[in-house]
Amino acid sequence: MIDRSAPRGVLPAPQPRGAATVPAALPVRPRTGRLLVLATVFVCAACGLVYELELLALASYLIGDSVTQSSVVLSVMVFAMGVGSLLAKRLRGRPAVGFALVEAALALLGGLSATALYASFAWLGESRPALVAFSFAIGVLIGAEIPLLMTLIQRVRRQDAGGAVADLFAADYVGALVGGLAFPFLLLPLLGQLTGAMLTGAVNAAVGGALVLWLFRRDLGRRARWLLPAANLAVLAVLASATLLADDFERVARRAVYGGEVRVAVQTGIQELVVTGPRTGSPRSLDLYLDGRLRVSGYDEYRYHEALVHPAMSGQHQRVMVLGGGDGLAAREVLRHPDVARVTVVELDPGVVRLARTDPMLSALNAGVFGDPRVEVVVADAFGWLRGMPPRQFDVIVSDLPDPGITPSTKLYSQEFYGLAARSLRPGGRLAVHAGPLLTRPHTFWTVEATLRAAGLRTTPYSTGGRLTGFAAGPDRTPAGSDAPPQDWGFVLAAAERRPDLRVDPDTPTLRSLSTGTLREAAREAERLRVNGLPPSTLPHPRYTAF
């Protein structure tokens, strides 16, 4: 029998086995019903992308190496979406019920995924299995959405398959755009990772359930008419309860990760800042974590900052630039030289500088350097800021940046970046670079050194020992009593004209851990461990990975 409702010249779309062949009895006109289905596609796509970005962000924060984590999440989710599309065939005989159940499950899993991932990391110490499991499960459910929605939109009003697919994917892609923009600019800064995911799940459950329970309610059997509302209300109740308990959960989980003395936990627009230690007492008890990684320990930070700064200060040092260093500790060491005229601190996150100014313990540790009139703070991306700087501005540049294996900082360890830094040096100027641990990540360390040489600089590598016992708390901790090698910091001192000599300026006030003799011995030891033949890291070909 020929379907007379199809447009002239267009064959009716083939119907899947078991699917309804007649239009649904709707409470609205078919045109309005079709718009409601497309609006649901829009919302579901936005929610799905938020879940995906939530997993990516939290995985990068908890595990590090964001390129690897992004690849794992995206590849697993895309594969799972294909699996979900195939599994959706079994539900197309009852598409309304199938879609409602898929959305309820997706809202529950997606809304609680960030919480489960953080809990796995906090109490089990490992979040990779949970990351893969949630990526797969969420991907399967997202993959099942479009086939079911395709069947539902054909139930509203029959049209050619090509037109229906075009409409659905247009709404899907626009929804993904909105979700992708809402996550970094709205959900993350206002609600945080955990609550943002829960709110997204609640919206997902409410919209998916409302479409089926109102628009397609006449397609539902007696059992489905009470089962689906009960399932959606249960999901919303779980998400609401989890939202109310989110703050308590974060406090308990944070104590499990960082220990019992977390006294500052701030999510800036760029990263999470956590300070542990008592509110009063010696600043040596302070630990500062940025995105879960220990960046400052009051116990031994002086070893790092003395070794980073003072070898570069042995020549002319009237004008100094510190790249990173928003905690003020590198600037503290620079200002131990009384003839310094200007220190420019280029920091991406103003929240770090604000914390260094206002936190009593951190301010005591950095000796209140941000109150010194010689210190200028520039809030900017170091790469872009250096590109706009006139050449020959600084006698010393100190690169106090996160390890090069942390992907967001990779461009600041590239040949192009070091070329910009070399251009900013005055004749005879020096560049000091934190290059990651020499003993435990030699490939990364020597890649930094090779990259500096590729930028036309002469280099002198060296290192200094740090804390000899494992970190007692935090994501960077090592098990107490383990056979892990001592924690060390690796550095490279570079100059344009000639290979810089490692020494300490004799006029420098007494240093606690550094002398010309120890520096030169460290340089000789580093040369014995040299890895030759490594290519430089560039913007189009980054060479740093988690070795």
From TrEMBL:
Alphabetical list of PROSITE patterns matching this protein: PABS_2
Catalysis performed (reactions): S-adenosyl 3-(methylsulfanyl)propylamine + putrescine = S-methyl-5'-thioadenosine + spermidine + H(+)
Topology with respect to the bilayer: Multi-pass membrane protein
Keywords: Cell membrane, Membrane, Polyamine biosynthesis, Spermidine biosynthesis, Transferase, Transmembrane, Transmembrane helix
EC number(s) on file: 2.5.1.16
Subcellular location: Cell membrane
Domain PABS span(s) in chain numbering: 237-483
Spans through the membrane: 35-63, 69-88, 100-124, 130-153, 165-188, 194-214, 226-246
Pathway participation: Amine and polyamine biosynthesis; spermidine biosynthesis; spermidine from putrescine: step 1/1
InterPro entries, alphabetized: MFS_trans_sf (IPR036259), PABS (IPR030374), SAM-dependent_MTases_sf (IPR029063), Spermi_synthase (IPR001045)
GO terms for MF: spermidine synthase activity
Active-site residue numbers: D400
Predominant localisation class: membrane
Annotated binding of S-methyl-5'-thioadenosine, by residue: Q271, E347, D381, A382, P408
Domain of life: Bacteria
Residues that, per the record, bind spermidine: H305, D327
Quaternary context: Homodimer or homotetramer.
HAMAP family, per the entry: Spermidine_synth (MF_00198)
Similarity comment text for this entry: Belongs to the spermidine/spermine synthase family.
Role this protein plays: Catalyzes the irreversible transfer of a propylamine group from the amino donor S-adenosylmethioninamine (decarboxy-AdoMet) to putrescine (1,4-diaminobutane) to yield spermidine.
Protein name: Polyamine aminopropyltransferase
Species assigned in the record: Streptomyces bambusae
Taxonomic lineage from the root: Bacteria, Bacillati, Actinomycetota, Actinomycetes, Kitasatosporales
